[in-house]
Design a protein that fits this description.
Largest sheet: 6 strands, antiparallel
Number of helices: 14
Shape: globular
Oligomer: single chain
Radius of gyration: 24 Å
Distance between the termini: 35 Å
Number of strands: 25
Strand order of the largest sheet: 19-23-17-14-3-25
Mean pLDDT: 86
Number of domains: 3
Helix content: 25-40%
Strand content: 25-35%
Low-confidence stretches: 1-7, 9-18, 27-33
Length: 490
């Protein structure tokens, strides 16, 4: 195995113009009669999309510490509630329950989940580490965060969808952090599930408040498919969403001479639910030198381990590189934050999920460490390889919705070919681009199982889905197209 040692330090040089200032603060702990250090790095980065950070333990002992990145990474309920209350002021005088809804939208990505099981609903493993999921994951976390902020909340199962309600002034209000919307009733208050079940007029544009961000599900708001989620009499508040494993993050740990890099795409593709193969959204990578043995813990969900040797996870022994370990990790059936190295015959690399938004590199970054002996940890900026860049999907919601509305006005929703022609007319597409796009579409459709083509064409009847598909095909965004193909083939 090729060593990564020279990546973090041997060949690492600071970029020209990068400024790093360090502040060391000592806090006296009366209970422990010891000192806890807080080390703050203020780091300016010229090209955030190409950058990551490396923390290296230069000592011969394991160092334990808390980590904050741009004031995020949360260790308990009060930290999350405090951040939303005082540190999340995007709109003046916004009520706390709506701040919480917006916070969830801003910090979670809508993508096929790792698991359908309850463990993924734990807010600390979901918000800090995984960072992606679908309606049940996202809106269950919204309901949990409302409770952290002092509200009564509940989670509803609808027709193939999950939403959350919060009690405000003795009445329930329905919010959807997955699609990014809520609806206004005739009394000019937020509609609840009962009102949405019985009043289709509430799904008009004038009665809808939507918050478009990075979440492409926002494009579906007020489509026939979206409305169908609510317009059923089988909706019910489901207590199942109130149960999830108890997990609160402990400190990060760096073994002697090891280093932790984040964020970047360091793992191979993973299998999410719906059997969709996708690149991981974002990772941290822990590199441990050969021959070290002992317990390893990070407050992050473990994605993969590479190297030569023997490890234990939950008292089960695995040989590194063996299929049994890969199968165990790919089950995604539990929170896994620790393992023990029993035998180490090479450099060992542990790869974790990190939320790409919580750990997003900015032009100006604040990285804070708190613990003992943290002055022995060195922090540097490093350059990512192109294959390690994190893909933040930028979507022009306004343009896509505008084209979809124009298609609504002029074409038969069941005629895919006619829809393509009208799309080209609206976009004023030149002949060369038409030819390339048609070839890309044929290539994509050829990879969909014949018995599943009806699913594809049914999805394409929804114009916002069709327009999004056309843009991704035009860009030849292979990762997204492969996800689409896998979705239609499931």
């Amino acid at each position: 195995m090729a060593t990564l040692e020279n990546r973090c330090y041997g060949n690492m040089v600071f970029k020209m113009g990068v400024k790093i200032s360090i502040i060391l603060i000592l806090f006296a702990s009366l209970q422990l009669n010891s000192q806890i250090d807080t080390l703050i790095y203020n780091i300016n980065v010229e090209e955030p999309q190409k950058a990551a950070f490396c923390l290296k333990n230069n000592s011969d002992s394991l160092i334990s510490f808390k980590l904050k990145f741009n004031n995020k990474f949360f260790y308990n309920d009060s930290e999350i509630a405090s951040y939303i209350k005082s540190g999340y002021n995007k709109y003046p005088n916004e009520p706390l329950h709506q701040k919480t809804w917006r916070f969830v939208i801003d910090n979670i990505i809508h993508q096929p989940p790792l698991s359908f099981e309850q463990w993924q609903h734990n807010p600390f493993i979901f918000l800090n580490s995984i960072g992606f999921g679908i309606c049940d994951d996202i809106n269950t976390n919204l309901a949990i965060l409302w409770k952290m902020c002092g509200y009564e909340s509940r989670v509803w199962d609808l027709n193939s969808h999950v939403v959350a309600e919060v009690k405000i002034n003795d009445r329930w209000e329905c919010y959807d952090a997955n699609f990014g919307a809520y609806h206004i009733n005739p009394n000019n208050t937020i509609a609840n599930i009962g009102e949405l079940e019985n009043n289709i007029e509430l799904f008009s544009d004038s009665q809808t408040f939507d918050y478009p961000k990075h979440n492409y599900a926002n494009l579906m708001i007020n489509t026939k498919r979206y409305i169908s989620h609510y317009q059923t009499k089988n909706n019910y508040a489901n207590e199942w969403y109130n149960s999830y494993p108890d997990f609160y993050p402990n400190n990060f740990n760096l073994p002697p001479d090891s280093y932790l890099e984040f964020p970047g795409v360091y793992n191979d593709s993973i299998k999410t639910q719906f059997n969709i193969q996708k690149n991981t959204t974002s990772n941290a990578r822990l590199v441990i030198l050969k021959s070290w043995t002992g317990k390893v813990y990070q407050p992050l969900q473990l994605a993969n381990i590479k190297g030569k040797g023997i490890i234990k996870i939950d008292n089960i022994s695995f040989e590194l590189g063996a299929k049994e370990l890969s199968n165990f990790l790919r089950k995604n059936d539990r929170i896994i934050t620790s393992f023990e190295i029993i035998e180490s015959n090479s450099e060992i690399i542990a790869i974790y999920f990190v939320n790409p938004i919580v750990f997003k590199v900015l032009n100006n970054n604040k990285l804070m460490l708190a613990g003992n002996d943290i002055e022995l940890i060195k922090c540097n900026e490093i350059s990512l390889n192109e294959s390690e860049y994190i893909s933040y999907r930028e979507i022009d919601f306004i343009k896509i919705k505008d084209i979809a509305k124009k298609l609504d006005e002029i074409e038969d929703e069941n005629d895919f070919d006619k829809k393509m022609k009208n799309f080209f007319i609206i976009e004023n597409t030149d002949n060369n681009t038409k030819i390339k796009t048609n070839n890309n579409i044929k290539n994509t459709i050829s990879k969909i199982n014949k018995e599943k083509l009806n699913v594809f064409y049914k999805q394409m009847r929804t114009n916002v889905v069709f327009v999004l598909f056309m843009y991704e095909v035009n860009k030849k965004n292979s990762n997204i197209i492969n996800e689409m193909i896998a979705y239609f083939n499931r």
